[in-house]
Write a structure and sequence with these properties.
alpha+beta; Protein Transport Mog1p, Chain A; globular; six-stranded antiparallel sheet; 2 helices
């Protein structure tokens, strides 16, 4: 789906655990979208720095990162990606241990911009990454569907964020701001 149908470089499918696709819409149609699911097992990510995140600086860094990969994309025959900005600025739900943000992207000179709506669900040993990929005009649909998606995805008992054992479990070398 990610590589052949949606035209991404092969590495876009690296470490993908699966995808959630709405049953009522073909992912190949103009209205099609999906949620790419991956997991990062870097360890427990402390969230006590959540209120200190500089989202302006973060966006600048993300734009520079996107630009730096464009030469490689061109060499592989793919359009460059331009990070236009936040489609929705980042926010952290401390009670649920979930970080949300959405980026507006442009591929090549395509007039229709792409939405990447990301959610990080923190757990005891790492975090689950949900990335909804859609067109920008589908942001309201993604907002509507997100609670249902999140309700279906939880860490099992013993693996939840609150199950972390300091001094026993591995902690990530970075906090939430990274």
């Amino acid at each position: 789906m990610l590589v052949e149908a949606w035209g991404n470089p092969p590495r876009a499918a690296d470490a993908v655990l699966g995808m959630l696709i709405p049953t009522s819409i073909s992912p190949l149609s103009q209205e099609g979208w999906g949620v790419v699911i991956t997991y990062d097992e870097d360890g427990y990510v402390y969230d006590d720095d959540a209120g200190k995140i500089d989202y302006t600086w973060l966006l600048k860094e993300m734009k520079e990162s996107a630009q730096s990969t464009n030469e490689e994309r061109k060499q592989q025959g793919f359009d460059p990606v331009t990070l236009i900005g936040w489609a929705e600025p980042p926010s952290y739900d401390k009670a649920a241990h979930k970080l949300y943000w959405a980026k507006e992207l442009q591929f090549g000179t395509e007039p229709e911009h792409t939405l990447n709506y990301s959610i990080r669900v923190l757990g005891r040993r790492g975090f689950l990454i949900l990335n909804a990929v859609a067109s920008m005009k589908q942001l309201p649909v993604i907002h509507q569907q997100t609670p249902q998606i999140l309700a279906a995805l939880n860490f099992n008992e013993g693996y939840r964020y609150t199950d972390y054992l300091p001094g026993t479990d591995k902690a990530a070398a970075y906090g939430l701001t990274a």
